[in-house]
Write a sequence for this structure.
């Protein structure tokens, strides 16, 4: 043993100070996270715990590289798809088909849930459905802030929804539990929170006349109307759905494509279906714009990786986990709704492994049902996707909807639905026996 | 690129006096080039370290009884020339009997497994039957560390003749060999959904597929090795975090339960505490389940305590890997959160972990011989007590002084 | 299937290379986030893509 608690505390303080000061000075969350990581690695090397500090920093950049690629190619697909006018056509279609505000919001909620539920990534829901959902919900008279909150809440609910919940999968993998019996346990709280969110955010909004809304939306070119238009609109989305569904139902006949390549394939299909041919120059310009648009987000996830690696190298990750799991049960119940989301904000999916897995073993020792406990925690971690330092889904949502208000005002707006989800999850954690029938 | 386009500013505020002074740092092609050069320098320094780990070979001096070296590519030719190909050292006594496979490095971040295989190889004497030793089952996984965990790339074992260096790898195959991951992993052939990165986890890919992913092909090759060589007992060695319930334990396939139970009772009463669990039917892809289901072998997995891979440890150091001593874990131990006893002063040193594996394997073979005399294997190597007394280094031979034909780079 | 998997594997290296090139271009010429801070961010974000396409990490 070559370290002491004061040493680790000093590193934590230094990291926090570095993050705050560099955030003020450089106005860049990405750089601030990376610099906080550099500080931790500096102390690690200074204390003689590593002789390869640069390796630790650079290795961290690889932690979320695949996620960054997913973000980049998903954005590319959506921009090409939007360029064809398909988004506008779908938006016009939904607004003209449904007459009730509640029906429209419920329909958009379900559509938002699907991409994240089958890929496990809420960000995919934001990329694929976020922009369209925002426009449609806005047209129901919902304010900018509330419509942005709507997109975010259903994005995190989609990530938590079955069949693919990455937090559950990581915890079950660590604890050698089979990934079975989680469907209803996850779905029921999500449906309750979803219903609450629709009512909470839609309450008081006045839908304007259909004709007025449609008049404000851009016109759709003739080629995007009729049967041909339908094919152009649906083909890229159907291709994406087909690849995802085939991966699940015919996994041994399908090659492993990975989400980035799936989005590339869809982008190519969208390009072919686009009636507004853009030529090579136009295409290059669009890709260039997409790369610039998505760069801050990609840089954020890459920088989170640096932070994660630095926290592990310096023992800060262990300190956070230790401080929490050593608490008595009553304190764990009292603090988990704060600690779990903030751990997600710091460590992304690493939170499930650092906080979640030890707690599963603890609750197991206490004779509680671990499937319910695991599901409960899997509903708490996604809430942290709007919290600093990483705030990946929150930031992505605000960028997708071009939200102009302060980030704090966005956080205030999502607080209540997050609290409902958190309290439902907490109830499951405290009284797992009540929920056993859902397994 | 015009100067105007590239000239931009960042504004830094000084504290006082008011009105605030603004210091302008210009960003132009010179500063951009400097940033790029610094980044390339960082990439070069780190890249050298990554490259070294990718290409580093561990040295082993085999005992004289080595009769043959096989490769996984002998069973799946597609693996030839890839990082999935790995050697299997065969020690054939020439006397008819049974056969045993000892597997290390299924998870290369559990290095006591491959080190125990090397010590077995360096000191083995087989007088009946055959022993197959595969020190690095997932060779690809030895060529990098786990993302986000900041592992040192290697550790040294002190010997009388100098240091022997061994790698600390990943839990899964290297993305350079298998990329991308899917958003979920669906196990073949059960269709059970598992965590997405288990797609590259060898011990979730058994029984594997010939036309599957890189890791599934490695898994299939190991199954073919077991089937073609008629392996009577296959032992898969692992290490586990001490806050994980399945630690210090045999996990046995139904067919090997009696043997493992006797071995566990014997070890617990004479040498060290050893638990026993039956391989659960609901967990798919594991060696203890699929090796037994898809071949006639008696499949047993062994887990020894490795605090280094626990979630709540302090700085990731080589010391932690070698001694297993950690302050944070000692708090967890005091609170009863660990599944093996844990004291800061003792930790779980490498020689204890390696010694446990060597004695645990020896006892399994001993009881296989009792239950199935027709499969008898007689083989000796150092055991727990010797390892604890003398350390790992005492059982590693100097490659400089050894017969060059018995020195291998793995 | 093995061949298809191999093609996909190398396609990912090409995709990583394209991203790296666009980041390099973004370092020297971009419309938004023109400050020095983002020069630094662009520069270090190139590293993983560079080391990946060089088959180093």
């Amino acid at each position: 043993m070559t370290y002491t608690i004061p040493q680790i505390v000093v590193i934590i303080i230094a990291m926090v100070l570095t993050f705050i000061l560099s955030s003020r000075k450089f106005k860049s969350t990405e750089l601030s996270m990376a610099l906080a990581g550099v500080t931790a690695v500096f102390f690690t090397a200074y204390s003689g715990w590593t002789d390869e500090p640069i390796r630790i920093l650079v290795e961290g950049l690889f932690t979320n590289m695949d996620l960054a690629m997913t973000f980049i190619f998903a954005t590319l697909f959506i921009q090409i798809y939007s360029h064809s006018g398909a988004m506008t056509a779908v938006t016009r279609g939904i607004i003209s088909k449904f007459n009730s505000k509640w029906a429209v919001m419920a329909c958009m909620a379900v559509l938002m849930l699907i991409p994240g539920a089958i890929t496990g990534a809420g960000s995919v829901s934001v990329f694929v459905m976020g922009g369209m959902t925002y426009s449609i919900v806005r047209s129901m008279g919902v304010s900018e802030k509330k419509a942005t909150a709507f997109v975010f809440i259903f994005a995190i609910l989609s990530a938590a929804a079955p069949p693919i919940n990455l937090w559950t999968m990581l915890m079950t993998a660590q604890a050698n539990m089979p990934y079975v019996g989680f469907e209803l346990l996850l779905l029921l709280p999500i449906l309750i929170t979803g219903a609450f969110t629709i009512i909470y955010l839609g309450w008081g909004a006045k839908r304007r006349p259909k004709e007025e809304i449609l008049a404000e939306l851009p016109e759709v070119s003739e080629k995007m109307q009729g049967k041909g238009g339908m094919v152009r609109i649906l083909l890229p989305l159907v291709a994406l759905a087909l690849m995802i569904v085939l991966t699940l139902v015919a996994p041994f006949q399908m090659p492993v494509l990975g989400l980035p390549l799936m989005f590339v394939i869809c982008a190519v299909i969208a390009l072919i279906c686009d009636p507004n041919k853009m030529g090579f120059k136009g295409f290059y310009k669009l890709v260039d714009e997409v790369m610039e648009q998505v760069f801050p987000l990609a840089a954020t996830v890459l920088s989170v990786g640096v932070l994660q690696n630095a926290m592990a190298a310096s023992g800060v990750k262990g300190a956070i986990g230790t401080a929490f799991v050593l608490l008595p049960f009553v304190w764990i119940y009292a603090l988990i709704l704060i600690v779990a989301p903030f751990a997600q904000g710091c460590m992304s999916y690493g939170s499930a492994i650092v906080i979640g897995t030890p707690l599963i073993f603890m609750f197991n020792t206490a004779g509680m049902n671990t499937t319910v406990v695991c599901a409960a925690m899997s509903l708490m971690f996604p809430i942290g996707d709007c919290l600093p330092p990483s705030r990946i889904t929150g930031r992505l949502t605000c960028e997708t909807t071009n939200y102009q208000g302060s980030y704090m005002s966005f956080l205030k707006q999502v607080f209540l639905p997050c609290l409902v989800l958190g309290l439902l999850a907490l109830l499951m954690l405290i009284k797992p026996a009540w929920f056993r029938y859902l397994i | 690129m015009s100067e105007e386009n590239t000239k931009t500013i960042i504004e830094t505020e000084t504290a006082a006096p008011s009105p605030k002074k603004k210091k302008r740092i210009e960003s132009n092609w010179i500063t951009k080039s400097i940033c790029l050069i610094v980044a390339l320098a960082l990439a070069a320094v780190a890249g050298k370290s990554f490259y070294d780990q990718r290409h580093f070979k561990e040295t082993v001096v085999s005992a004289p009884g080595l009769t043959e070296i096989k490769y996984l590519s002998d069973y799946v030719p597609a693996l030839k020339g890839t990082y999935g190909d790995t050697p299997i050292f065969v020690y054939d006594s020439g006397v008819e009997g049974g056969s045993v496979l000892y597997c290390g490095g299924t998870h290369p971040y559990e290095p006591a497994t491959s080190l125990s295989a090397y010590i077995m190889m360096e000191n083995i004497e087989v007088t009946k039957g055959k022993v197959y030793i595969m020190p690095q089952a997932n060779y690809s996984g030895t060529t990098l560390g786990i993302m986000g965990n900041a592992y040192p790339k290697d550790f040294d074992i002190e010997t009388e003749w100098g240091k022997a260096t061994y790698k600390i790898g990943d839990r899964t195959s290297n993305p350079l060999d298998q990329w991308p991951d899917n958003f979920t992993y669906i196990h073949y052939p059960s269709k059970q959904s598992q965590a997405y990165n288990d797609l590259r986890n060898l011990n979730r890919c058994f029984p594997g597929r010939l036309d599957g992913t890189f890791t599934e092909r490695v898994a299939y090759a190991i199954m073919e090795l077991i089937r073609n060589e008629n392996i009577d007992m296959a032992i898969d060695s692992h290490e586990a975090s001490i806050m994980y319930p399945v630690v210090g334990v045999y996990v046995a396939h139904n067919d090997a339960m009696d043997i493992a139970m006797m071995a566990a009772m014997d070890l617990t009463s004479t040498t060290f505490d050893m638990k026993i669990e039956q391989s659960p039917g609901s967990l798919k892809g594991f060696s203890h389940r699929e090796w037994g289901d898809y071949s006639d072998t008696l499949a047993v997995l062994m887990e020894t305590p490795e605090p280094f891979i626990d979630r709540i440890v302090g700085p990731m150091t080589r010391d932690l890997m070698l001694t297993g001593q950690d302050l944070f874990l000692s708090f967890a131990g005091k609170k009863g959160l660990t599944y093996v006893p844990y004291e800061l002063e003792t930790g779980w040193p490498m020689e204890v972990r390696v010694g446990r594996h060597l004695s645990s394997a020896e006892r399994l073979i001993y009881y296989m011989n009792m239950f199935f005399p027709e499969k008898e294997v007689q083989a000796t190597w150092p055991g727990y007590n010797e390892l604890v007394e003398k350390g790992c280094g005492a059982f590693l031979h100097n490659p400089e002084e050894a017969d060059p034909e018995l020195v291998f780079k793995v | 299937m093995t061949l298809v998997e191999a093609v996909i594997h190398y396609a990912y290296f090409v995709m990583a290379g394209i991203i790296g090139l666009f980041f390099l271009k973004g370092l020297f010429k971009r419309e938004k986030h023109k400050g020095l801070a983002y020069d630094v961010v662009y520069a270090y974000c190139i590293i993983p893509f560079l080391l990946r396409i060089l088959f180093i990490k």
